[in-house]
Design a protein that fits this description.
Layout lengths: L1 H27 L53 H4 L4 E3 L3 E3 L5 E2 L7 E9 L6 E10 L10 E16 L2 E11 L10 E7 L2 E4 L1
Antiparallel strand pairs: 1-2, 3-4, 4-5, 5-6, 6-7, 7-8, 8-9
Length: 200
């Protein structure tokens, strides 16, 4: 009996020692955690190299200078009346003021010298020229009994004047085409006054 108990106790002691050793061994072994494998990194796509396109700087065209012509200042307007716009006249003792008269009496006192068949050029300008027949009474043997003689002459009017009354020529020149009558100059000058032509 005592031997059986002793064997039993010995077996229990061995089992207990073996269990303790197993526990101790299990405790002493390190726990290795099995980690799940990490996913493999996906490489990012590399940008494909783009060939650089050479750029040529665009030149900005210089502004083209525009030639400017200096503008002359307009001449001041000269006020004019209706009379100043009219054709100039001359004083004629036969019929007062006339423009481009066809006949001019040079000596109003006796009318023995008269320009007839007058034809004018450039009337209205600073001077005007004309042609005429100068009919002259030579008063031989007297002015009453004398005869008229015709002479071809050139006529010029000049000294153009202007005022509120209008424009008028104040000088007249008669030039004989051929030999003038006795006692008469080849070129005669007249003033055209308010009472007609006067030698001067």
């Amino acid at each position: 009996m005592n031997k059986l108990v002793s064997h039993a106790l010995t077996g229990m002691a061995i089992v207990m020692v073996a269990g303790s050793a197993a526990i101790a061994t299990a405790t002493a072994l390190p726990l290795v955690a099995t980690a799940a494998p990490a996913p493999a990194p996906v490489p990012a796509p590399k940008p494909s190299p783009v060939a650089a396109t050479p750029t040529t700087p665009t030149a900005v065209p210089a502004p083209v200078p525009v030639p400017t012509t200096p503008t002359a200042a307009p001449a001041p307007a000269i006020p004019s009346t209706g009379a100043n716009k009219a054709a100039p006249t001359i004083e004629n003792c036969a019929s007062a003021s006339q423009a481009e008269p066809r006949q001019v009496t040079l000596f109003c006192a006796d009318a023995n010298d008269t320009l007839t068949k007058l034809h004018w050029r450039r009337w209205g300008e600073a001077s005007a020229q004309g042609s005429a027949t100068d009919v002259i009474n030579l008063c031989q043997p007297s002015c009453v009994a004398g005869r008229n003689h015709d002479y071809r002459v050139a006529v010029t009017v000049s000294d153009l004047q202007s005022d509120r009354a209008g424009r008028r020529y104040e000088r007249l020149t008669v030039t004989f085409a051929g030999k003038p009558p006795k006692g008469t100059s080849r070129v005669e000058h007249f003033k055209l006054g308010a009472h007609g032509p006067e030698i001067g």
